[in-house]
Amino acid sequence: MIVATGNIYEDRTAAVAAAEAGAQIIAVIRSTGQSLLDFVPYGPTTEGFGGTYATQANFAIMREALDEVSARLGRYVMLTNYASGLCMPEIAAMAALERLDMLLNDSMYGILFRDINMKRTFVDQHFSRKLNAASGIIINTGEDNYLTTADAVEQAPAVLASQFINEELAHRAGMPDRQIGLGDAYEIDPNLEDGFLLEVAQAQLARQIFPDAPLAAHLICGGGRPVVIFCFHRSAHCRSGRQSSCQESRRDCNFRSCRICRASLARVARAIGSRLRIV
User: Which of 124, 140, 156 is the last residue of a domain?
Assistant: First the structure.
């Protein structure tokens, strides 16, 4: 569930409500342009543009609220934010100190879309991923961002290539497969025959190639607005050691046997008005 009001206190209220309604992961979107700031803002923030500034105080406020609602609900609610653009190591360090569970952590789209110096940002990414590896934070890579300006079907091979690159760079930083969350995106095109089937095939391909990596797919309508986020995953355990997602065993999780995956696919089918039969 995404929260991004610009006011961390309003975000906190929305995040608690989302968790009570069933959300498993809360993602706080950063304020527009923070990826180009060569410093990290200080303290709680109440103003932002298209999102909320990533600060250590904001991390602590949100983590405390989710800890409280987790205890009340009897299940762990995960928290994610962004460590991309400039200040990747600094944000990764803050996230480790404040017990975040996931970080979007990919330098390549900053190079492609924000003209960030390539040498500097790959060094930053490597150091930040070392910190994430040590702290147990799962990274999310940025393949979904590439597809905002490219055709998802025509550029599917480029997405796979990016996943291979991100896997290798993460391994070089000491990250195990279970912490390498590889991304993808599916843009709904009503004029494309079997478009959703093609995306399921792409997700299944990624699952077979990267059997132990968490996979996240962002479903996007034709106007570019996110509709739903779902996962084709192996069983993942939260940092407290409790199972947090798939209810089947790690080796048995697939579209047929995993109740979480089946329910996610059914929600996606309803969202796009499509009939889907899992075989």
Answer: 140
